[in-house]
Design goal:
There is one protein chain. The chain is built from 11 helices and 8 strands. With 284 residues, it is α/β, with parallel strands linked by helices. The protein has a 6-stranded mixed sheet, sandwiched between helices. The protein has a two-stranded antiparallel ribbon with strand order 1-2. It is elongated and about 75 Å long.
């Protein structure tokens, strides 16, 4: 969404800080609009002169649709709370190695999503052959044949544990467009993410021709996921996966796809494409 100037930004910052100090970090501890407003007034008296309560209520409604906002509200219930932990996961996710272990637990559900589209898939996250950002977490290939003509489609997916810092991480998925006919950026998020405007994320998707996939969980489950308390099977049972932004098929230069298939995937002969990776078996 388009922000309404500095007053909007100030209101969002103060509302978020107030919810943190009021310990409204989950649905059970939600706070009403007038409670949040009263706390802000107490801490910053001039706020009420600049933004009346009626305007603040309108801002709160706008925050629910803002991709930069952590403020949430459940339909049918009064009260606001911080619905995610995007900005303060450092204590729970202390280093990159732990982040990677948590991230890897998303691979099976994302891989299955790609398999349902008819692709042979494989976890290719450990490949380092193609240089920096040359190892998609998940790769899928699909072969179509007709009258002796063969066409191979390559899809790649870059997976993250949250949309935090997507403005930088998104370009890992962009780099895979060298050889991928479709490239995706995937991440986990608490339920309600898709209801936000997410305009900046959609803009990145449209500008760089990369699809966006979201693995959505209930808030409590998401918190446990970030802490590494959920295994792959549990995630598969509780999470929903959906395509937030789709991406059109694009033809790629043969030399790039050939290099990726031969060097990164080990596909060097025609018959290799039929044994590479795994596919959903459909009984006849």
């Amino acid at each position: 969404m388009s922000r309404g100037g500095t007053k909007y930004d100030d209101a969002l910052k103060l509302a978020t800080e107030s919810l943190e100090k009021l310990n409204a970090k989950n649905f059970s501890n939600r706070k009403k609009a007038d409670e949040i407003y009263a706390y802000i007034k107490k801490e910053k008296k001039e706020f009420a002169k600049e933004i009346p309560l009626a305007n603040f209520r309108q801002y709160l409604s706008a925050f629910l649709r803002d991709e930069n906002s952590r403020i949430g509200k459940k339909t049918g219930y009064n009260g606001y709370y911080l619905e995610d932990n995007y900005a303060d996961t450092s204590d729970e996710i202390p280093n990159e190695k732990v982040k990677l272990k948590v991230e890897e637990k998303l691979y099976p559900i994302v891989e299955t999503w790609l398999k349902t589209k008819g692709f042979r898939t494989k976890n290719t996250s450990s490949q380092k052959i193609m240089g920096k950002w040359g190892n998609p977490d998940i790769t899928g290939i699909k072969v179509d044949e007709h009258l002796g003509k063969k066409e191979i489609e390559i899809n790649t997916i870059e997976v993250k544990i949250s949309p935090l810092n997507f403005q930088q991480l998104f370009f890992e998925a962009v780099s895979h467009r060298r050889w991928a006919n479709r490239s995706y950026f995937a991440f986990a998020a608490p339920v309600g993410f898709k209801k936000k405007a997410n305009e900046e994320l959609r803009y990145y998707s449209e500008l760089f021709h990369v699809g966006v996939i979201v693995v959505e969980m209930e808030e409590a489950d998401y918190e446990n996921f970030l802490k590494g308390k959920l295994d792959e099977d549990q995630i598969a049972d509780i999470a929903d996966i959906y395509e937030l932004s789709s991406v059109l098929y694009e033809s790629k230069q043969l030399k790039w796809q050939k290099q990726f298939m031969e060097e990164a995937l080990g596909i060097k002969k025609d018959e290799d494409v039929y044994t590479w990776g795994t596919v959903i078996e459909i009984s006849s």
